[in-house]
Amino acid sequence: MGKLYDRLQKQLKSEEHKKDAEDCLKIYEKLKEINNGSVWSLQWQQLVDVRFKGFPSDDRTYKPSKLGYVFLKGIEEKKEERESGVRYISVQMAIMSHLSDAQECMNLDTGNYPGISRADLHINFAKKLILKYPDTDVEVTDDELNELWKEISNTSFRSKTELIQQCLSDIINKTERVTTGNVSHSVVSIKAMATYCLKIINGEI
């Protein structure tokens, strides 16, 4: 796409088509940013219309298409929001972050309590992002991610009361086995579940 960039620079020198060149350069730079330095022709052709001068000249001018102007509007709005302190993150990065959190959760405490439950929550969130944003290169705000996280939490996680009740029931059952089973293993499990209950009560989970 080196020739394309050179043509846009040349078009900048034309007063008649200067504004169109400036808009197309904004599209060009944004595509380059989101595609790791590349501008794919398929994306470019959807966002920009080309007008040829005609044979025998190879000269051409570029102007944003209707879709291109929508794309430009999004670029400008995000620029203003960033300047006002709104933080954006790519969906791809959010997915990777939550999958990493899921890995960490699986290593918590002495068994599957509560790590696996928390890991499932992060994995479900990553799956939700993939379904909601098939193009994972798009950027979303922290607020959008937080709202989606609340939605997943409310549908995937049991209420704190239910969790505490389950913990306490398990503690009672484990205590009954202390005198007959593996004492050291049972005590460790009891401690882990009791700690988890306290975290729930204190609002840490």
Structure characterization notes:
- This protein has 205 residues and is mainly alpha-helical.
- It has 3 domains: 2-83, no CATH class; 87-157, no CATH class; 159-205.
- It is built from 9 helices and 4 strands; from the N terminus they run H-H-H-E-E-H-E-H-H-E-H-H-H.
- It has helices spanning 2-11, 18-34, 41-47, 66-83, 91-105, 115-132, 142-156, 160-178, 183-201; strands at 48-52, 60-64, 88-90, 139-141.
- A two-stranded antiparallel ribbon has the order 1-2. It has a two-stranded antiparallel ribbon with strand order 3-4.
- Strand 1 (48-52) and strand 2 form a beta hairpin.
- Helix 5 packs antiparallel against helix 6 (115-132) and helix 6 packs across helix 7.
- The two termini are 51 Å apart.
Summarize the model shown:
This protein is mostly helical and 205 residues long. Helix content is 67%, strand content 8%.
